[in-house]
Write the structure tokens for this entry.
Amino acid sequence: MDGAKPKGFALRTSAKLTQDAVVTRITSPNVVAILPGSDPKLKADYVVLSAHLDHIGITPEKPGDKPGTDRINNGALDNAAGIATMLEVARAMAEAPEKPRRSVIFLASTGEEKGLLGADYYARHPTVPAAHIVGNVDLDMPLLLYKFTDVMAFGADHSTLGPLVAKAVAPMGLTLSPDMMPEETIFVRSDHYMFVRQGVPAVFFATGFANGGDKAWPKFLGGNYHHPGDDMSQPIDWASGARFAEANWRITEAMADGDAAPMWNKGDFFGDLFAPKAVKAGR
Ligand SMILES: [Zn+2]
């Protein structure tokens, strides 16, 4: 019965649907800092280290809540830990006697949890010429709950940022593992993707599945994630926090110091779609 259409029929009853919406205008700023590069030519280009500064606020009261139920979503890992990591990289780079060759943008974005709003705005209306933003690493929800020995960079397969990350963290004894949660489609779910949509190669950098990560990740995503339990009562491993910051410093340095800017891989879906005219890396 190819091409046949199902026959319509009159419903026996009718329904009327209405919907109300209240629109409130609010303002929430991104916070941006720039560390000027040291190379007379390359300083005109910018690499971005980003992390979102917002979280999801207070969970509304539900019928049956016990008195004193904790409804405050602190977002200790999502994303205070990401912001703290970014600030530490900024401090280390600003204090180092030798500055990176390209300029570095530290972006604390707002409204990520509302749909990547702050990053979308910044990627479309940057405070520097858009064409000079050449790469982005995003930090969202680093799981600092175990002694990580490997890392993941969501989107590593799409651009030269994959090999760059692998090389940058190797001196720390860290290996770059493949995306262990492809079903979560993380590459299109955080702020870096707004840069991708403007044609900028980007990755979301995170701790890996080795040495306890395989248990910690699903446990967090199915438990404290977007829940009042994402607070300081979690067993945060501070030494891993310091290591994660060092890894990010090395990656940001590598992006800023490389002779070539990050490039999309030849034939990559995202590169071809969002940066059709950009020079691609051969594989
Ligand atoms: Zn987040």
User: Anything to note?
Assistant: The first helix runs from residue 76 to 95.
